[in-house]
Design a protein that fits this description.
Elements lengths: L1 H13 L4 E5 L5 E9 L2 E5 L9 E4 L5 E9 L2 E6 L2 E2 L4 E7 L3 E9 L5 E5 L9 E5 L3 E5 L10 E8 L5 E7 L2 E7 L5 E4 L1 H4 L5 E5 L5 E9 L5 E3 L1 H6 L10 E6 L4 E6 L2 H15 L11 H4 L8 E4 H13 L6 H12 L3 E4 L2 E4 L3 E6 L4 H19 L1 H12 L3 H12 L8 H13 L6 H8 L6 H19 L9 E3 L1
Parallel strand pairs: 1-10, 7-18, 8-11, 19-20, 21-25
Antiparallel strand pairs: 1-2, 2-3, 3-9, 4-8, 4-10, 5-6, 5-9, 11-12, 12-17, 13-16, 13-18, 14-15, 14-17, 15-26, 20-21, 22-25, 23-24
Helix pairs in contact: 8-9, 8-11, 9-11, 9-13, 12-13
Length: 477
């Protein structure tokens, strides 16, 4: 009541004669008190004017940032996102016996507020409507220029769990997003429809911004893991491969149509970086044609720099795909040209293929993703090293023997640590026992392996907010 009294004093002292208007559902018009301050307008309601919960629509031309609602025993501040769209209208649900609205933003000289019983919507406008726990945006039809890839970006203001339902063209998908996701880029090409409605549900459904953007044909496609894995090959810009940047990281991801295309880009690199008896040398196609590379790949910036620098030094004839890869790595900042070679920049490279069935592809990506995080995070590397160092020597030897079967070089301690964390973290905790017992074939060291696995799980929860077996902070419902 003190707040209302103070506003009434301001009204009497500074803005005599200034009146807003409220249009009731039956068409009747009621006068509202109005207080004007710099970048703020306050509308004062008589308690009997709003006897039940209803919707208030602000006048056309309003550009609202924030509204504070004051009612009997009720005070709530709500915000609205920045939105670049034509003919935007704002509406919010208000409680019974509303006393005042404090408006921040830009508004017409004459404030006429429309009251309705139902949430307003009309195809003539872009609607932004708000309740205490939901935000809905009705978008007009939109598209981007030919040759560009569209994105719809949602930016959050604070960390809290939230869901976003996007609908359009007869399709609707709901996504659950972890609290740490403060920016999410929805890609119509990945999910198969252009949204015309966005609805955010959360205890705090605020968005800072909603923006439509486009990437040209040379830019890496920005994608969270769920989006990247769902992106159909028929929607790629090139039929044989597509380039992605894992959103929120400096990790470049190459996805290829099949294993042969993947080999064209990465097979020689695999032998140079990781294969026992082959590491550190450049091998011709004929020398490794009969040998298997990998079905999925991961490479650090230093390893990539060593590969391309040696190729330059030896005038080794790289194939067109390897030259394209070098160009892409340089453009992404993972390689930095220096003299007659390259030095490590920031980031890492991952590779997967659509020839891997979806379930296998997802598992392979999680494995490679943890390698990418290992390459790009000193905190993660230090945490993994601490876990590995506590394993008994016998447990380490047993795991080295397991990796040696796949031609990993067991003498490379850094490689052993990296592979240990990736093999553990690619699977859910429920699958750890079976992996160590049946794949690594070690019952003797099982308690030690399980303790190490639990510590790695705790580490990635603390650093990234996800659990063993998952690298996505976005999931479909």
């Amino acid at each position: 009541m003190r707040k209302v009294f103070f506003l009434l004093v301001l009204l009497a002292a500074g803005t005599a004669g200034a009146l807003g208007r409220l249009v009731q559902p039956d068409g009747s018009i009621l006068a509202l008190g109005e207080v004007r301050l710099p970048e703020q307008r306050t509308l004062l309601f008589a308690p009997q004017n709003i006897p039940a919960k209803s919707w208030l629509t602000l006048p056309a031309g309003s550009q609202v940032r924030e509204i504070e609602l004051v009612g009997r025993g009720y005070r709530k501040s709500v915000s609205f996102p920045r939105l670049q769209a034509p003919r935007v209208r704002y509406a919010l649900e208000v409680p019974a016996q509303l006393l005042s609205l404090e408006l921040k933003g830009w508004f017409p000289e004459s404030l006429t507020v429309l009251r309705t019983a139902a949430r307003p919507e009309s195809p003539e406008f872009t609607w932004v409507t708000r309740t205490a726990t939901s935000l809905r945006i009705e978008l007009p039809p939109w598209s981007v220029a030919a040759g560009y890839t569209p994105f719809l970006t949602l930016k959050r203001l604070s960390e809290a769990p939230w869901t976003a339902t996007l609908s359009g063209e007869g399709t609707s998908r709901t996504f659950a997003l972890e609290p740490s996701v403060l920016r999410w880029d929805f890609a119509p090409e990945a999910w198969g429809f252009v949204p015309s409605r966005i609805e955010v549900l959360a205890q705090d459904p605020r968005l800072a911004e909603v923006r439509i953007s486009a990437l040209d044909s040379q830019a890496n496609l920005l994608a969270d893991p769920a989006t990247l894995l769902n992106w159909p090959g028929q929607n790629w810009r090139q039929p044989q491969r597509e380039w992605f940047t894992w959103a929120g990281t400096s990790i470049l991801v190459l996805v290829t149509k099949d294993y042969q295309t993947q080999d064209d880009y990465l097979k020689r690199l695999a032998f140079f970086v990781e294969k026992t008896g082959f590491r550190g040398r450049l091998w011709t196609d004929a020398q490794i044609a009969h040998l298997h590379g990998w079905n999925a790949h991961d490479y650090s910036a230093p390893s990539l720099a060593q590969f391309y620098t040696l190729a330059e030094k030896e005038s080794f004839p790289l194939n067109p795909e390897e030259i394209e890869l070098r160009t892409k790595l340089t453009a992404s900042g993972i390689l930095v040209a220096k003299g007659s070679g390259w030095e490590a920049g920031t980031g890492a490279l991952l590779g997967i293929s659509l020839e891997s069935p979806p379930a296998l592809r997802a598992a392979l990506f999680v494995h490679e993703a943890f390698h990418g995080l290992y390459f790009t995070s000193e905190a993660f590397r230090n945490g993994v090293k601490a876990v590995w160092s506590k394993l008994p020597d016998g447990a380490k030897t047993t795991f080295r023997d397991f990796l040696a079967i796949s031609r990993y070089d067991p003498s490379d301690e850094g490689l052993m640590m990296n592979e240990f964390q990736a093999y553990v973290l690619q699977r859910s905790p429920a699958d750890w026992v079976g992996f160590f017992r049946d794949k690594v074939r070690s019952k003797l060291w099982l308690p030690d392996y399980m303790l190490a696995s639990q510590e790695l799980d705790t580490l990635v929860q603390r650093l990234y907010g996800f659990r063993s077996g998952k690298v996505s902070l976005v999931r479909t419902l």
